[in-house]
Amino acid sequence: MSDVTQLIHEYLRHNKKFPHVFCPGCGHGIVLGSLIRSVHSLNLSKDDVVIVAGIGCSGRMAVYVDFNTVHTTHGRALTFATGIKMANPALKVICVMGDGDAMSIGGNHLIHAARRNIGITTLILNNFIYGMTGGQCSSATPHGDLSMTTPYGSLEPSFDIVEMAQAAGANYVARGTTFHANLLDRLITGALQSPGFSVVEALSPCPTQYGRKNKFRSAVDMYQWLKKNTVKLEAIESGKAPKSDPRIPIGLFRDRKLDGLEEKYAALKTKLMDGAR
């Protein structure tokens, strides 16, 4: 049995309908593979891992993996994840959301989860659009790009997810793409090992809703676009690429080791109980 086949049999639920519902060329399956490889590399027990997902294409990941899983309401995945982590801090809680789910409908929850620095690993699958519900513009849709609700181009600036997460207080902040799969593996593995709130943005092509409207001829063109229009952060930091490089930087932007909210809560609980004695 090959390593890939072994991972499939070990981590996916075989009573679910396969092949998965992701469209041909969608990057979400690559993120799913990266997540599974990262969990496997850390030898985490499946019983100790919880996947919490919102509504959207990315939400299907919670259906396929053989962990503890919760498929929650739109934009509210982080509220469920927060409750789970505070109730049982020993669990490795992973929250999976799309850009619309995390930054538009769930934007307020993302800000406060980062501010609290609670020990949740958050994966934001950014395909620049609401993919499942018809291709509407999201808060991550680039300025000028087309969608069902912006047929003449978006007039609004988009959120920078990395800058938002850092400003709000997240411990670990990274950005990868589904073209750079090996880098994405490393970033997710690092996030799973980090204390406090971790955010990994994964740029993931949506050929069906975003690509067609923005004149990408094929999914391959979208992956080529990711290759040409991203630059590794280490290249900028080492001077191999200029700081003014217009391409999207990818890599690890922040890696702090501050205690998470659940750790502070446990310490306070112990202190108060000791005082009561």
Structural class: alpha/beta
Strand order of the largest sheet: 2-1-3-4-6-5-8-7
Provide the gyration radius in Å: 19 Å
| General form | globular
Q: Assign the CATH architecture.
A: 3-Layer(aba) Sandwich
List the helices and strands in order. HHEHEHEHHEHEHEHHEHEH
Q: Main sheet?
A: 8 strands, mixed
Put simply, the count of helices is 12
Description:
- It is a single chain.
- The chain is an alpha/beta fold and 277 residues long.
- It has a single domain (3-276), classed as Thiamin diphosphate (ThDP)-binding fold, Pyr/PP domains (Rossmann fold, 3-Layer(aba) Sandwich).
- The protein has 12 helices and 8 strands.
- It has helices spanning 3-11, 28-41, 61-64, 77-87, 99-105, 107-116, 161-168, 181-193, 207-211, 219-228, 233-238, 261-276; strands at 49-53, 68-71, 92-98, 120-126, 172-177, 198-203, 230-232, 248-255.
- An 8-stranded mixed β-sheet has the order 2-1-3-4-6-5-8-7, with helices on both faces.
- α6 crosses α7 (161-168).
- The mean pLDDT is 93.
